[in-house]
Design goal:
9 strands; single chain; seven-stranded mixed sheet; alpha/beta; about 300 residues; binds zinc ion
Length: about 300
Amino acid sequence: MPVPCLKPLLLASLMTVQSVQAAVPCAEFAARLPNLKRDLCEAVKLQATAARSVQGRTLWVRDVKPEQATMRVLVVGAIHGDEPSSAAVAFHWIRLAGQLPFASAQVVHWRFVPVLNPDGIFSQPPRRVNAHGVDLNRNFSTPNWDREARIYWEKRTRKDPRRWPGAKSLSEPESRFLHEQIRDFKPQLIVSIHAPYGVLDFDGPAVPPKRLGSLYLHQVGIYPGSLGNYGGVHSGVPVVTIELPNATRTPRDAEIRQMWLDLLGWMSARLRIQRQAKAVGPSYFESRLVPAAPTAE
Ligand SMILES: [Zn+2]
C-alpha cells in the first residue's frame, strides 16, 4: 500500500494551529466578560503580541493612534482575573477611542491592554491571581520590594493567598509584559481598571480627577508592588485607578461613556497646560503639583 505524502497534511495542520493562535478568542471573551458582545470584541481588532501568560495565552493589545497624537495613555483591564467587568469596560473604551468624536481624544495615542491576566479570567471559577497564584498588582518592582512585599503580605494581609506578591518582583510574564509596555511605550498617563470598590484612586504628580461618571475620588492606601505605587509614586507617571462598583456586572453603556468623557475632560485640562508650556512630556503634569499624600489603590 503506497504511503501517502504527509507533507501537505502537516503544513495544513501547522497553518491551522497558527491561524487559531492568531485569532482573537472573541467567543470565549464574550462568554466570560459581562456586557461584551462578540461583535464588539471582533470590531475592536485586538493585536497579538509575542507575550504569553503563564498558561500560554496571548496577551493582546490595541493601539489607537490619531495622526496628530502628542500624548500617550496606557489603559489596563483585568490585572485581577476575578474582575471581568474591568476588561469589558476596556473593550468598550477601545471602540470609543476609535470613533474619535471628541477633540480632546484626537491628540491621544491610546494603548489598551484589556486583559492582562487571561489565565485568571478563564480560570473556573475566575481568580484574582495568575496561574502561579501571584497577585500581579503586588508584583511590580517598587523600591524596597524585596523587604516590604513579603512583610506586608504576612503582617497586613495575614498571608491572604489572593494577595501573594510572588517570590520576587516581576517574576511573572504578565507583570513583566506590562513593565515592558511602560518602559517602551512611555505612557504619560496610566489608567488601571479594577472592581468592586466603586471609587477612583490616583497616584502621581497631577491634580487628580474628582470624578469619572458616578465614581468619586477616594484615595486609599499604598501597597508594595502595586501598579499605582510603581507608576504614580516612583516613576512619576500619573496612575488613575478605577474601581468599578461591581466585578461581574459592567456599568450601563451610558455610564461607560460618561466615565470616558469625564476622563477626557480631566485630561483636556492637563493638555491645555501642555500647550501653554509648549512641551511634550510628563513635565507638564508637574506644573500642577499637589502636596503628595502617598496613596495607591
Ligand atoms: Zn483589582
